Amino acid sequence: MAELNSASVTRMFRVPERAKLHMAMTVFQLGYAGNHVIMRVALNMGVSKLVFPFYRNILALLALAPFAYFLEKKKRPPLTISFLIQFFLLGFIGITLNQGFYIFGLDNTSPTLASATENSVPAVTFIMAALLRMEQVNLTRKDGIAKVIGTLASVAGALVITLYQGPTVYSPNSTPSNKTGFLSFGFGDAKGKNWTVGCLCLIGHSLCWSSWIVLQAPVLKKYPARLSFVSYACFFAVMQFGAIAGCIETDSRVWQVQSASEVFTILYSGLIGSAMVFAIQIWVVDRGGPLFVSMYLPLQTLLAALMATVTLGEEFYLGGIIGAALIIAGLYLVILGKSQESKFVSEKDPIYSMSEKNQVEDPGQSSFIQPLLSSATGKSVA
């Protein structure tokens, strides 16, 4: 009787798997949205744009490496020279260039805009996968048309953000102004900032992120230990940032952490913005698929906008709002296309549909999985 009562209580308080995924992604986006604002604060304090990511990735590596070592002992393949070269290149593209473009773009724009441009990553990933023939485009079906229109909308949104800033639509500290500078935020000095250069850097950030997703897919098929893969990528990124910063930042004062606020921004960015985000992302991709992760990107933009407005007094520009709306609309069209494509593949060949294939390989995995790329690359991290 006691066992029956215990079992019923356990069932009563058991959290459904989908609810766990939603909670995890909410924490993920809240943490990453905060990272946009925290890094903007760090830039306002005058931190080096090369030394800061160096410290950030050291913390991320120290946080991830122990978990990777102990949790993936059994499924980690032997390390070879070929894997090391691939990890080095993926670390350079997916972390060093990715974060480098991001921090230079953020320095010239805003947290909200930086977050908004990241919504274009699924569309850019689709373009790259299609060019590499990892993704099929069928314009005779609704899913193919949705993906193409969504991709075009995301590209149009990125172009609008880059080429048209427009008037100030909302300013929390004053009425809409007629300032004419590239940047008129209520925080930081607009002097020396260049909106167009910042937007181009953010587009470069999205391109690097998409390249990382596409290029890591074949690597993860041979090296399925994801935490170990990310740890190696972080290790090489630390070496790369250290070498670049060592050559450029020759003033020893730049390497010194000047205040408790700087310590906090480095800790947050390294432990929350990198380590926690990587860990949650890997877990959710395993349980829900890359498509599930992509669906939450607009929440990050909304949270970043609210945080930036409250904490930094960020102003909103018409061009940024129009561009962000186009990018988010494009994101959901691409997601809709992928969802319809998954249903079509399941109906046509239910035995080898992606979700069932994952269930056979790992019975503990979710049945919600829908790949961001084709089944050949469905194991990639979004």
Overview of the molecule:
- By secondary structure, the chain is mainly alpha-helical.
- 70% of the residues lie in helices and 1% in strands.
- A two-stranded antiparallel ribbon has the order 1-2.
- 48% of the residues are buried.
CA radius of gyration: 21 Å
Helix content: over 70%
Overall average residue pLDDT: 79
Strand content: under 5%
Q: Order of strands across the biggest sheet?
A: 1-2
Order of helices and strands: HHHHHHHEHHHHHEHH
Assembly state of the chains shown: single chain
Q: Cα distance, first to last residue?
A: 47 Å
What's the count of strands?
2
GO molecular function: transmembrane transporter activity
Subcellular location: Membrane
Membrane topology: Multi-pass membrane protein
GO cellular component, one term: membrane
Structural topology:
Blueprint (H helix, E strand, L loop, with lengths): L1 H12 L3 H28 L6 H21 L9 H28 L2 H7 L3 H11 L10 H22 L4 E3 L24 H28 L3 H23 L11 H29 L1 H5 L2 H16 L3 E2 H31 L5 H8 L21
Main location: membrane
Pfam families: EamA
InterPro entries: EamA_dom, EmrE-like, WAT1-related
Which structural traits does this protein have?
mainly alpha; two-stranded antiparallel sheet; EamA_dom; 382 residues; 14 helices; disordered C terminus
Summarize the structure.
The protein is mostly helical and 382 residues long. It has 14 helices and two strands; from the N terminus they run H-H-H-H-H-H-H-E-H-H-H-H-H-E-H-H.
